[in-house]
Amino acid sequence: MQLPCITSDLPGVGGVIKQSPEDFFVQEIPLYEPCGKGEHVYCEIEKKGLSTFEAVNAIARALDIPKQKIGFAGMKDSNAVTRQMISIQGVSEEQLQALEIPDIKVLWISRHTNKLRLGHLKGNRFAVRIRDVEPTDVIKVEPILRAIQKRGLPNFFGEQRFGTRQNNDLLGAALIRDDNVGLLKLFLGSPDRRFDNPQTTHARRLFDEHRNEESLRAWPRRSGLERRVLHRLIKSRKPSAAVRIIDEPLKRLWISALQSRIFNEVLIRRLDTFDQILPGDFAWKHENGACFLVEDAEADAPRAQAFEISPTGPLVGYRMSMPTGDPLQIEQEVLAKFDLTPEQFRLEGKHKVKGARRPLRVKVEDVAFSGGVDNEGAHITIAFTLPAGAFATVLLNEVMKVGYDTASDVPAPEPEE
Questions:
Q1: Which of 107, 124, 135, 246 has its CA 20 to 30 A from that of 269?
Q2: Cα–Cα distance between 410 and 73 in angstroms, integer?
Q3: Residues carrying an active site annotation
């Protein structure tokens, strides 16, 4: 789904992104620096053409350690050049310095007392080349960015949050509803030729036809999780037993995608007022991330205009703080559309999702842009900084106003309140 723009009255530059990993550069901005001592070795790595998970697995293999000993603050996908900090427990600086892994460089090494965790991130610095453009169209960029810097960037979750098949949120909804049969139909069936190659399309069709043994033989070897889940279903004949095979981190990712889809829907309905405080809003303090219930919207309006505070939307959970008035009505209407309630996000023995609030907008800082030509042809380059959890492709959507591949910036899920 193409996300709506707040600059729809301004023409975009068109073009394409990520024609090569070098066209999409991401530099993590850490939440804190290592103190120089402790059992965890911290290092900044530069990787090219590898996802964070692929890089972590490669480093773990090279060091002959469990991958669980490696921590990281943010998830970055493969089609980019990214610099990010990782922590590794139980190794020496010399072991890291001796590493030789294709497309991974160790830039510096230090130590710290604790493991790096998801969300331990202040923000990201991006430099993106847009290709197949007229370099002179760079003049279109300035008014778009000026409008965004004035109102803020809508804090949409990018489409990459919803997975290769764009249904992570549906899988999350099945988990929340404890609908094991429905989850397996989505995970092993429901072929879609937009996303599935002929082999997986065939395997999914066989599953939908209840020809499970044939479906198992049809799944390609690389689809290891699908094969394991289907094998357990065949052996146990219990959908619940098959769903238990799925890793908990993947289940949490699906539930996070459901929260993201609900948030996006709320933000779409608030797009005309996403930079304004309404009576009953839960407001976000950009200085420290604290939230408060707005009692006097008129009195708080200057703070919103100064970008000190912003309205928030829901990351739904059973303990999530709720607004009142019109903001509450909008959120309740969206939850009704999804046929969900916050209480469903707690199911004893299966999931306990507390929920949180997320600002409807974020600041775009340190903006620079230029047009030019290199060996690959004409391009427009845009550099900017976003806070942790914000998606670069949302800003690129405003600048380009065309469909785009959305696989390169994958912020970590927000920590719960």
A1: 124
A2: 11
A3: 77
Question: Which conformational region is residue 2 in: left (phi greater than 0), alpha (psi within -120 to 50 degrees), or beta?
Answer: beta
Pairing between β-strand 351-352 and β-strand 346-347 as defined by DSSP bridges: antiparallel
| CATH code of the domain occupying 270-362 | 3.30.2350.20
Whether 339 and 181 have beta carbons less than 8 Å apart is answered as: no
- pLDDT at residue number 414: 46
pLDDT in tens, 322-357: 999 999 999 999 999 999 999 999 998 899 999 999
Give yes or no for a contact between 232 and 241, defined as CB atoms under 8 angstroms apart: yes
Under the banding of pLDDT at 50, 70 and 90, the label for residue 417 is very low
* CATH class of the domain whose range is 32-118: alpha beta
Tokens of 333: 């209407």
Give the rounded distance of the alpha carbon of 16 from its chain centre. 20
Q: Are 32-118 and 168-248 the same fold in CATH?
A: no
Note whether 382 and 392 are within 8 A (CB): no
